[in-house]
Amino acid sequence: MDIKPLRYFIAIAKTESFTKAAQQLGVAQPAVSMAIKKLETDLGLILIHRADRNVGLTDEGKKLLIHAEKIIQATDEALLEMMELQGLNQGEVRIGISSMLGSYYFPSILMAFRHHYPSITLKVIEGGTWELQKMLENGELDLSVIVAETLPDSLETQTLVRGEMLVTIANDHPFSELDKIPPKAFFEEELVMFKEGYFHRRIVDKLAKEANMTPKIGFETNLIPLIKSIIRQGFGISTLLAMVIEEDDQLITRSFDPPIWLDLCIAWRKDSYLSKANQAFLEFVSEHGQNR
């Protein structure tokens, strides 16, 4: 089977449009339409609903999509491996990083790697931990930084660093008189939280459930400077990784009681081919992280 129609089919499924799929693929729309028609004829099935400009997959199309994505992913990895056997390196790393780590832990690592490997392109995708994990599993990312909690068997991980989640408060907050903060006391305060889907929020939600408390969330934002500003002005408290707190933030931190430690890992798919560029990045990050 020619796999080109499968690429067209996947693009149509994602864009829900023949026109948008053609634009994304850089081909003429009639070519896309003809390829899909031939694919349906070869399979003897209708794969796509075409009614009043609304494009959607049939039940048969939805089943084919699962296999098509796996076929394209395996084909791309096989081609990359064959190219690298000939000494041809695409030199690209697609990595997913959350806001907190992307802003405070990774900039120096990424710049140092780029300096060491100037021919390798870094594509950094920011997102929530859960979203990035799904993108990794679907082959949209080569690597992703995640928190090692419950991981699927399909992923391989390597620990980068262990970080403590600290209660973060203004200088004049009553918690400043305490050595450690019990979760129940934390959840009695107005909170400034990341949005759902980010590991910061997932940790807090899990902690609230264990304490049988409902978080009082006054602000939701993924902008760390804004979170710090809100805390500093006394409009709420939060919890941030120790690495995020800087001396000039004018904020106070305290450990939870008991302390909350997170293992931050870099992950990749077990069944995927890691290019030489990705292998170089893994080795570099591992060495850099151990030296921090």
UniProtKB/TrEMBL annotation:
Annotated CDD domains: PBP2_LTTR_substrate
SUPFAM superfamilies from the UniProt entry: Periplasmic binding protein-like II (SSF53850), Winged helix' DNA-binding domain (SSF46785)
Alphabetical list of PANTHER family matching this protein: HTH-TYPE TRANSCRIPTIONAL REGULATOR YBHD (PTHR30419), LYSR FAMILY TRANSCRIPTIONAL REGULATOR (PTHR30419:SF30)
Key word DNA-binding present: yes
Full protein name: LysR family transcriptional regulator
Native species: Marinomonas colpomeniae
All residue ranges annotated as the HTH lysR-type domain in the record: 1-58
Family statement drawn from the similarity comment of this UniProt entry: Belongs to the LysR transcriptional regulatory family.
Pfam family for this entry, one: LysR_substrate
Keywords: DNA-binding, Transcription, Transcription regulation
Superkingdom, taxonomy of origin: Bacteria
InterPro entries: HTH-type_LysR_regulators (IPR050950), LysR_HTH_N (IPR000847), LysR_subst-bd (IPR005119), WH-like_DNA-bd_sf (IPR036388), WH_DNA-bd_sf (IPR036390)
Keyword Transcription regulation attributed: yes
